Amino acid sequence: MQRPLIFGMVHLRALPGAPRNKLTVRQIADKALQENMHDVPYQRPEHRNPEVTAIMAAIAQQFRSQFPTVTAGVQVLSCGNKEALSIALAADLDFIRCESFVFGHIGDEGFAQSDAAELLRYRRNIGADNIKIFTDIKKKHSSHAITGDLSIADVAVAADFFLTDGLIVTGQHTGTPVEKNDITQVRASVNQKVFIGSGTSAKNILHYAESVDGFIIGSEFKEHGYWENEIDPKRVKEITSLLSSKY
After folding, report:
1. In this predicted model, what pLDDT tens digit does every residue of 125-182 receive, in sequence order?
2. How far is CA 98 from CA 108, 120, 211, 247, in A?
3. Which of 8, 9, 97, 143 would bridge with 218, disulfide CB 3.0–4.6 Å?
């Protein structure tokens, strides 16, 4: 099997307008290029102001200029899927991480409606068909009681039918490991790229390595494994070295 990819998350500091914002846009960009979950509490798309997209696009363009060849994507919280596509197009990024592609759910910020049909048409309309859409299924920080009669495999099948480019499986919360059986069910149900989106650590990465196409890692790369802290180069090296030694 091909070596799984590792996507390290760049968490932007709180943007202007967010309750925890303390930095200028330039300072936020500088921090991002050294290393955003800091805009808590997250807003639903209908409440999000345009400066979020504009600032994130500017920072993404700076990132792409500094790292022109790496595979890179963007996510806008919460459920800012169209915004993410527009940022990816402007900054020449490769993919977006998409929440609520199929089936609605209740998140911390309220109800999130599915948007696959609108999103794929928007991608076509703006000429961004080369940008992949990787889809969270049964995503973390959410209640799935509305779709409690559907297994994670059922949701994977629906996302595949609605033309996702890849699937992201998570634990219940940030930093919570994925259930191995969830990966097994998804793999058995669809022929899609599958990524782990939470809870990867030095203790378990090799346990998953042969089952997935990649890992999206945020908290584990930070000091003490906590998402709000700064990047810890030793933790980054430990995890990447483990995967390199296996492949």
Report:
1. 999 999 999 999 987 677 677 888 999 999 999 999 999 999 999 877 776 788 899 9
2. 16, 11, 21, 29
3. 9
The secondary element (H helix, E strand) that includes residue 117 is helix 116-125
CA 89-9-213 angle, to 5 degrees, is 85
Q: Which residues contact 127 (CB under 8 A, 6 or more apart)?
A: 89
Instruction: Give the mean pLDDT of 211-236.
Output: 86
- Indicate the CATH number for domain 5-246: 3.20.20.70
Contact (CB, 8 A) for 88 and 96: yes
Q: Whats the size of the chain, residue-wise?
A: 247
Report strand pairing: 5-8 vs 214-217: parallel
Per DSSP, the three-state class of 148 is: coil
Amino acid at 179: E
Distances (CA, A) of 174 to 33, 190, 195, 225, 238: 23, 25, 15, 11, 20
Looking at residue 178, its amino acid is: V
Strands 132-137 and 142-143: unpaired
In the chain, domain spans: 5-246
Q: For residue 93, which of 109, 73, 113, 111 has the smallest C-alpha distance? A: 73
Please choose, from the candidates 88, 85, 94, the residue with its C-alpha nearest in 3D space to the C-alpha of residue 45: 85
Residue 245: count of CB within 10 angstroms of its CB: 8
* Residue 178 and residue 211 in contact, taking contact as beta carbons nearer than 8 Å: no
